[in-house]
Structures are given as structure tokens and as C-alpha cells.
From TrEMBL:
PANTHER family attached to this UniProt entry: CONSERVED HYPOTHETICAL ALANINE AND LEUCINE RICH PROTEIN
Protein name: DUF2520 domain-containing protein
Annotated organism of origin: Microbacterium arthrosphaerae
Biased composition regions of type Basic and acidic residues, renumbered to the chain: 1-10
Domain of life, per lineage: Bacteria
UniProt region (Disordered), positions on chain: 1-21
Domain DUF2520: 124-245
């Protein structure tokens, strides 16, 4: 059966035309969405011979390695369509290696968001392999892209992916809440962006010790005023505000305790 692919499917090898050490044969990428296109472009630029991104249902015949850049629910179906013999990996953070059976399986999950042109250089990546060879290939692919691999076992996948969702998805939810409340005071959403960036940078440097604001200072009068404003202007968000205050109080108390010890 011929591979299904868009017209732009064949990505030429990178400038050297050589395959980086530890990556056997051509790398086929199945899935022409944002991640598939970004991964094909980045691997090609790194000198890897890339076939794809191929359309879903591709057999990827002749590939030494196949990367499935498809939605989690479609990984098993995409894996079943592949020709035998290649090492097969997925790019999911939440999915175990089980849906890739009976192929020799691995996983790579870049810990970043992909929107448009994406550089993976310096990006941490969760890797796993069903065999030592498969794990070595996952690490080699990550290394070719300049990523920083770390291992996550299948049993730890739900916790790992929940942590990633908290760090990324929930942050967007919080900033939308801040923008919505700020709008009631005439504050444009972009005004909060420098504060968000500075906070993220401080957290990266100092961890929980980067916490500032009225809760960290023990200024309950100000917190009470904030709560009243939320209750008046966005009553549907009051439960979220209260949950965040409780969690932040716990964090502040823990930080003070650690500093005192």
C-alpha cells in the first residue's frame, strides 16, 4: 500500500547528508500536524535523512526509525499500519509504550509547546525505551536536536504529564483569569506579560523562594480586599481564587519553615 502523504512530504537531508551516530537508517515521521512538521524540519536541519511528514496510515516501509506525531488516541492505529522492522517511537507525554507493540518501542516528549517554527535546542525531553537499543535511539534523536533527555518510566507517565499540564496549560488558565479581572479595571491583557516573564525567570532561579505578594507577606487585609473584588466582579471565579489563596498560603508557610531551619 503506498504511503499517504501531502505534496510536501519529502524533507531533504540536512547539510551534511550524514545520519548522526546512534540513529539507524532514515527516520520516517508519521503525522503532518504542527509537531510532525516541526520535528521533520528540526531533524532535517540536524543532518538526519527524514522521510515525511507522512500522512496517517503510512507504512513507512524502508525506515530505520519511525516517529509517530499523531494524537494519543491514534497511536495504536498508526503503529499497526507500519511495516515491521523499524524502531517505532511516539511523541506523547501521557502515553506509555504499550500501544506501540509489537514494534521495538521508544518515546520522546519535548517539554515545550509547538506553535509555528520551533527550535528544540535546550528543551528538556522525557525519553523511554522498551529495550536498551530503543532507549539509546531516543537519546540519540534528542541529542541530535540539542534537547536535554531525562528518563520517565511508564508507571510515572500520568504524574509527569499532569505536572507538565500544571506548568503550561494551567498557567494559561491563570493568566486568562488575571486578564479577565484586570479588564474590569481597564487594564489591557498585555500589561501583565512582563510580570509573568519575570516571575517565571525568578521561579527558575529560586524555586518557591521566588514567591512574593500579600500572602507571602502575611498581609491578610489586602487578601480580603482582593477576594471582595473577585466576588463582586467575577463571582464565578471566586472558588478558583479561594483555592489559589489556600495553596499559596501553604507554599508560603512551607517556604518560611525551610528558611528558618
Amino acid at each position: 500500500m503506498p504511503d499517504r502523504r501531502p505534496d510536501h512530504a519529502r524533507t531533504p537531508a540536512g547539510p551534511s547528508g550524514d545520519i548522526p551516530a546512534g540513529i539507524p537508517g532514515p527516520v520516517a515521521i508519521v503525522g503532518a500536524g504542527r509537531m510532525g512538521r516541526a520535528m521533520a524540519a528540526a531533524l532535517s536541519a540536524a543532518g538526519v535523512h527524514v522521510d515525511g511528514p507522512l500522512g496517517r496510515g503510512a507504512t513507512a516501509a524502508g525506515a530505520g526509525v519511525v516517529l509517530l506525531a499523531v494524537p494519543d488516541a491514534e497511536i495504536a492505529t498508526a503503529a499497526r499500519a507500519l511495516s515491521a522492522g523499524a524502531l517505532v517511537g511516539h511523541l506523547s507525554g501521557a502515553t506509555t509504550l504499550e500501544p506501540l507493540a509489537p514494534h521495538e518501542a521508544f518515546g520522546i516528549h519535548p517539554l515545550t509547546t509547538v506553535v509555528g517554527d520551533t527550535s528544540f535546542a535546550g528543551v528538556p525531553a522525557a525519553v523511554a525505551g522498551a529495550t536498551p537499543r530503543a532507549l539509546a535511539v531516543a537519546q540519540a534523536l534528542a541529542g541530535a536536536l540539542g534537547m536535554e533527555p531525562f528518563e520517565v518510566a511508564d508507571a510515572d507517565r500520568p504524574a509527569y504529564h499532569a505536572a507538565a499540564s500544571i506548568a503550561s496549560n494551567f498557567l494559561v488558565t491563570l493568566e486568562a483569569f488575571a486578564a479577565e479581572l484586570g479588564a474590569t479595571a481597564g487594564v489591557p491583557p498585555h500589561a501583565f506579560a512582563p510580570l509573568v516573564r519575570a516571575t517565571a525567570e525568578n521561579w527558575e532561579r529560586h524555586g518557591a523562594a521566588a514567591l512574593t505578594g500579600p500572602i507571602a507577606r502575611g498581609d491578610e487585609v489586602t487578601v480580603t480586599r482582593q477576594r471582595a473584588a473577585v466576588a463582586e466582579r467575577l463571582p464565578g471565579r471566586l472558588e478558583l481564587f479561594d483555592a489559589l489563596v489556600t495553596a499559596t498560603r501553604d507554599l508560603a508557610a512551607s517556604t518560611r519553615s525551610e528558611a528558618a531551619s
